[in-house]
Automatic annotation (TrEMBL):
This is Uncharacterized protein.
Length: 40
């Protein structure tokens, strides 16, 4: 199950936190498309 797309209106401590939210989202999508976690 993938993470929900990060909402731009969610409060964040800074730009780095916003970037990490988007990276987590896209990393989750890539793992789903690849068929599972890398290295297993």
């Amino acid at each position: 199950m993938s993470l929900p797309f990060p909402s731009p209106s969610d409060p964040a401590a800074g730009r780095a936190e916003v970037l990490l939210r988007y990276l987590d989202f896209f990393r989750d999508i890539v793992v789903e498309l690849a068929g599972g976690p890398v290295g297993e």
